[in-house]
Amino acid sequence: MRLLLVALGFAVAVGGCAGASGPPPEGEPVVVRIWHQKDAAERQFLDDWAAAYNASQDTVRVETLYKETEELRNHYVFAAIGGKGPDLIFGPADNMGTLGITETIRPLDDLVDPAFLAGFTDDGRVTYDGHLYGLADQIGNHLTFVYNPALLPDPPATMAELAALGSTLTRDTDGDGDPDQYALVWNYTEPFFFIPFLTSFGGWVMDDAGNPTLDTPETVAAIQYVLDLRDRYGVIPREADYETAKALFRDDYAAATIDGPWSWGGYQEAGVDVQLSPLPVNEQTGLYAQPMAAAKAYSLNPAVPDWKLPTVLGVLELLTGDAIQAQMARELATIPVRTSVRESGVMQSSALLRQSLAQIEHSRPMPTEPQMRQIWDAMRGPYQLVMNGQVSAAEGARLMQEQAEKRIADTFLN
């Protein structure tokens, strides 16, 4: 664990609360503190909920604090190891491995009412190493095919149809010899945005033991397909980072993009009639291009004392219950993980929600193993070398595997 903590970042002095004192004086509320990394709209929703909840009674006061994802994980780990920090932490499911291995979150298996727990979909119960460590209020963070029906009335159903779009939708409209309108743009040089194509060829990032599985024929075939979209079929630009891709789609210079829930509202505000479609099927393998999807969940600080535990668990159930998930789905277009809400009329209230759920049904859970962070870092450099033409797809896959194995060994082996 020592090397893992070093890898997480530098130690910080963090004020704490979870186990810092006994019950409050009579007449004073029990304070439940939450650290989270919700985005702007969700952050406001949570703050408004906490304000309304606090005003509705005087026995419990919920306090929330926003932190960026990396800051949240690093600050929380060091605080919790010292018996401090918030009572609850909210973040993506892929944090569970790091928090579990550092023993900075407490298993919920025997703490949550079984009847309440049974109301979650499988993806709403976040586990690591055989234990329940998080209860989610949503699942998402998934990529999907986002298109402008004014430019692309019928989204591609197969990878061959996607490749064929280059011949009809990528155009040089001003005659300068370079395309200025594209069939598709997306941040294809970033590994997270490559995952759907990896899965469509039958590849994956790790095995069940957390060992990287990157140097495979499936990885090579997936990389080559992305290269062919650019170099052979002219579907995508020669270069496109995330901001460039977003601007091209927003400003009608591209018929489609591949992006996640965090982006859809911005496209709509810019006047794009955003429609979503599941990423296409690879007819060679019969597999959908499956993005990673991640639940976002609340976890419990082990330092929460016994006298406070029932209150904290009560707040946890409120924050992940049917009422708040239904409200979030209506107002924020998040995908609920309570079975009753997902099967309710709420999901029929928005075409975007239904389309988003269709992609969730063709996705793979983001691994909760702590090695995932090292694998992301190991993939990035070699993958971008391939995209820059400096190494072949096969050499890129080999280098990804080699660097992933080294990073994992350096981090986790004492």
UniProtKB/TrEMBL annotation:
Pfam families: SBP_bac_8. Belongs to the bacterial solute-binding protein 1 family. GO terms for molecular function: carbohydrate transmembrane transporter activity; maltose binding. Gene3D superfamilies: Periplasmic binding protein-like II. It comes from the Bacteria. It comes from Rubrivirga marina. Transmembrane segments: none annotated. This is ABC transporter substrate-binding protein. GO terms for cellular component: ATP-binding cassette (ABC) transporter complex, substrate-binding subunit-containing.
